[in-house]
Amino acid sequence: MDKVILCHGCFDIFHIGHLYHLLKAKEYGDYLIVSITGDQFINKGPNRPAYNQHEREQILSHIDIVDKVIVSNSVNAINSLKAVSPDYFVKGSDYKNSDNENFLMEKKFCEDNKIKVIFTDERTNSSTELYNKYFKI
Questions:
Q1: What pLDDT sits at residue 132?
Q2: Torsion over CA: 47, 51, 52, 53 (sign)
Q3: Which helix (H) or strand (E) holds 131?
Q4: Please, what is the average pLDDT of the chain?
Q5: How far apart are CA 35 and CA 42, in angstroms?
Q6: Measured on CA atoms in the order 122, 118, 76, 40, is the torsion positive or negative?
Q7: Residue 55, helix vs strand vs coil
Q8: S-S: 3 plus which of 20, 21, 29, 96, CB 3.0-4.6 Å?
Q9: pLDDT tens, 12-26?
Q10: What is the biggest distance separating any 2 CA atoms in the chain, rounded to whole angstroms?
Q11: pTM of the predicted protein model
Q12: Counting beta carbons within 10 angstroms of the beta carbon of residue 75, is it exposed (0 to 12), middle (13 to 18) or buried (19 or more)?
């Protein structure tokens, strides 16, 4: 039986850290689904997201290892987790000790539904830091 992996995030200003994260996530299973946060639920500052949800969806859907991209119309991944019911929910190492309220809810949902949470330990970048450094706000 195929193992399903779910990765979730904004994926705004796609960068090498995102690619390394997805490559590592794909190693855990057969079918990689990426859930992106819908535009109206992104609150990262003015002029964000830099790319709208359709553009972000297009970027991700053209990456060979990504089998499917869905848009999450929520502030967290719980609706995506319910819809996909993956074997693994894969997050970056920056979430390993996170007290982010949305992630803690996602983690609890995974524990309650026997979805294994895995953290990649690949190179990380921040789209927000890149945006602030290279784009005039």
A1: 55
A2: negative
A3: helix 127-134
A4: 90
A5: 13
A6: positive
A7: helix
A8: 29
A9: 889 888 999 999 999
A10: 48
A11: 0.88
A12: middle
What span, in angstroms and rounded, lies between the C-alpha atoms of 24 and 73?
26
Q: What is the dihedral of CA 92, 107, 105, 76, to 10 degrees?
A: 40
Sign of CA dihedral 61, 64, 68, 70: negative
Q: Report CA-CA distances (Å) from 7 to 30, 46, 87, 98, 134.
A: 13, 25, 11, 16, 26
> Quick one: tokens of 75?
């502030």
As a whole number of Å, the end-to-end CA separation of the chain is: 48
Could you give the angle at the alpha carbon of 56 between the alpha carbons of 95 and 14, nearest 5°?
A: 55
Q: Which of 33, 45, 37, 31 is nearest to 9 (CA)?
A: 37
